[in-house]
Amino acid sequence: NPGAGGNGGYVGTGLSFDPAYTSSQINLYDSNTRAEIQNEGYYITLGTTAIGPTDKVVFGFYNNYDGANDYLNRVGVANRLAYLDDAVGGGDKNSVGLGQQGYYYYDDAPTATDWYLDNPNWAQGDYIDVAVDMVAKKFWVRVNGGLWNHNDFADPTSNVGGYVIPQHVIDGGTLYPALTIATFNYFIDYQLQASAQYSVPSGFTFLGAGGSIAANQGYTGATGVTGETGATGPTGLRFKTTSLTTFTLGTGGNQTV
Length: 257
Known about the structure:
- It is built from one helix and 19 strands.
- The chain is 2% helix and 35% strand.
- By secondary structure, the protein is mostly beta strands.
- Strand 7 and strand 8 form a beta hairpin.
- The protein is globular and about 40 Å long.
- Strands 2, 3, 5, 10, 11, 12, 14 and 15 form an eight-stranded mixed beta sheet that branches. It has a seven-stranded antiparallel beta sheet with strand order 1-4-13-6-7-8-9, with no helix packed on it. The chain has a two-stranded antiparallel ribbon with strand order 16-17.
């Protein structure tokens, strides 16, 4: 339950995996915030929160368990036409992403990135963040709060060094957070991050499993008067505009806005 509705009775739904857009080979648990597979193959699950055409968002995964060490998992974005019994960046051209072995994937074609020589990019026990800028049509990935795209200069805030989101992916419909879990013979488990483990780039909103809030975004009718009610947040949560007010969003922890 992502909160009791705030001052105006609005409830922020928060990010979860969408059962309607998850391969039948992936099992969802913990209110659809945890995904796992035990069967051989590549499979996709999409998040429930749409990424709008002008959005700048960050979402994250935690690699709970990886008994395979095949390093075949991928993170990225996809539209809802994506074939779910495949990998992010597959040949249907409806998704794009970064794989654990350091390749950028689109149209089933791998391109080596700065991660490649230091692969795997992440493993069991790691936090993986994905920053998406829909205005720039790019995304960035970091692990455990390290360098974005494993590069000293890559930076979502200044729009430097991002991976391209191809126009064909965008043209296929609204984009959503996407995760590929892949294995040949072992159990693998991923959890959506409930709250940001590391700093969120300026101008970006973190999509947590308990809800999403970014300061001074999505207001309707607010004039900036301290304590004014009637401002609507980006996930539909109604709250006061007092600066440095703390809210609790389900399991997402306290967010100071």
